[in-house]
Write a structure and sequence with these properties.
The chain is an all-alpha fold. It folds into two domains: 5-82, Methyltransferase, Methionine Synthase (B12-binding Domains), Chain A, domain 1 (Orthogonal Bundle); 161-322, Orthogonal Bundle (Regulator of G-protein Signalling 4, domain 2). It has helices spanning 11-23, 28-43, 47-64, 78-85, 108-112, 114-130, 136-150, 172-178, 187-191, 197-202, 204-216, 220-232, 237-252, 264-274, 288-308, 310-318, 332-339, and strands at residues 158-159, 324-325.
C-alpha cells in the first residue's frame, strides 16, 4: 500500500496480498481505508516509538507467519529440533551379562570381551574419586557442625538429668522424652524443635504446641490434614478406603468442614483419583501431592512464625534447664583439615 522502497513486499508477501485481495474483494475498500487511517496515526508517533513498534510487528510475524523454508516455532518445538540436529549423544555404561544376551543395552563387544568393559568402568570410577565434587574439608565441617548441634541430646556426650540409660537399667530418661506434661519437659527437648519442622513434628509435645499455635492463627486444619495423611500410610488395607473418604470429605470435598488451601491443579488431581473404581481405586498415597503442598506451606510460613512467637519463647523459658556437658575433645586430624 505504501510505495516506499524500504517497505516493498517480497514475492511470497505479494502473492499472499493478491490472494487476500481476491478473498476479500467486496470488503477490500473498507480494509484499505482502515489501513490508511492506521498509517496516518503511525506518522504522528515519535521516530523511536515507530522503530520499536515496527520491530515488534516484524518479530510477531516472524514467529507466527515465518518465511517459507524456515521453522515454524508454533508447530515444531525449537528445542526438540536442536536436539535432533545435535550429533553428540550421551553414552551410557554397558555391563556384560554372562549367559547370552539378556539386556538389550549390552553390546556384542561387551559380550565377547567383558573384561575390557569392566576395566573401563573401573577407570571411570577412579577418575570420579580423583576429582571429587565436594571438598573433604567441607564434608568434615558439616559433620562437626551436625555433631555440635546434636551433642546436647546424646547421653554419651552430655550428662542427662537422670541416670544414663546406656549404662544403667533405668528408663527414666526415655520416659522423660515421652512426657507431655509441660512442667516435666526439659529445655533441651524444646530447643530441638527449632532445628527443623521435622524435629518439631516428630515430638508429640511439639506437635501439640504447634497445633495450639495454628489454632490461634486459624490454620489448624493444615496440621490436622497432614497428620491424617501420615496416619493413612500406616493403616491396614481393609481400613484405607473408609479413611480416604473421611479425609476427603473433611478437608478437600466441596463444603468440607475443615477445608485446606491447596492448588487448584492438585485439587483436580485428587478429585479424579477419588472418582476411580476397581483396580484404580484410591490408595493410601492418593493425597501425597496435597500433603506435600500443605507441608511446604507450614514449613515456609507457619513454622517460622511459631519460632518467633511469644508462645514458643515463653514455653522455652518455662522448661527446666539442668544439663552438664562432658569435655569435648576435637581430634587433631579435624583441626589439621581446617588449617588447610
Amino acid at each position: 500500500m505504501q510505495n516506499k522502497q524500504r517497505l516493498e513486499l517480497a514475492d511470497y508477501e505479494a502473492e499472499n496480498l493478491a490472494r487476500l485481495q481476491k478473498m476479500f474483494s467486496r470488503k477490500w475498500e473498507f480494509i484499505f481505508m482502515q489501513a490508511e487511517a492506521q498509517a496516518k496515526v503511525d506518522k504522528k508517533r515519535d521516530k523511536l516509538e515507530r522503530k520499536v513498534l515496527d520491530s515488534q510487528e516484524r518479530a510477531f510475524w516472524d514467529v507466527h507467519r515465518p518465511v517459507p523454508g524456515c521453522v515454524n516455532t508454533t508447530e515444531v518445538d525449537i528445542k526438540k529440533a536442536c536436539r535432533i540436529n545435535r550429533h553428540s549423544k550421551m553414552s551410557r555404561p554397558n555391563y556384560a551379562v554372562p549367559g547370552g544376551r539378556i539386556s538389550p543395552s549390552v553390546s556384542e563387544a561387551d559380550l565377547h570381551t567383558p573384561a575390557d568393559s569392566i576395566r573401563h568402568e573401573i577407570d571411570a570410577l577412579r577418575r570420579k574419586l580423583e576429582k571429587r565434587r565436594v571438598k573433604i574439608s567441607k564434608v568434615v565441617e558439616c559433620y562437626i557442625a551436625y555433631y555440635q548441634q546434636y551433642a546436647e541430646f546424646d547421653a554419651f556426650i552430655t550428662s542427662p538429668d537422670t541416670s544414663n540409660p546406656w549404662i544403667s537399667d533405668s528408663t527414666e530418661f526415655w520416659e522423660q522424652e515421652k512426657t507431655m506434661n509441660p512442667r516435666e519437659i526439659p529445655q533441651r527437648r524444646v530447643k530441638r524443635w527449632a532445628f527443623s519442622i521435622e524435629e518439631l513434628l516428630s515430638d508429640p509435645a511439639g506437635r501439640d504446641q504447634f497445633s495450639k499455635f495454628l489454632d490461634k492463627e486459624f490454620s489448624g486444619e493444615n496440621l490436622k490434614f497432614w497428620l491424617a495423611c501420615q496416619d493413612l500410610k500406616s493403616l491396614a488395607m481393609r481400613e484405607i478406603n473408609k479413611k480416604v473418604h473421611e479425609i476427603f470429605s473433611e478437608f478437600l470435598a466441596p463444603g468440607a468442614h475443615n477445608p485446606v488451601n491447596v492448588d487448584c491443579q492438585i485439587m483436580e488431581l485428587v478429585r479424579r483419583r477419588m472418582e476411580m473404581r476397581g483396580d484404580n481405586a484410591p490408595t493410601r498415597f492418593v493425597f501425597d501431592e496435597a500433603q506435600d503442598h500443605i507441608f511446604k506451606l507450614m514449613k515456609s510460613d507457619s513454622y517460622s512464625r511459631y519460632l518467633r512467637s511469644d508462645q514458643y519463647k515463653e514455653f522455652l523459658c518455662g522448661t527446666r534447664k539442668k544439663v552438664r556437658h562432658l569435655p569435648v575433645i576435637q581430634s587433631d586430624w579435624a583441626a589439621s583439615i581446617f588449617k588447610h
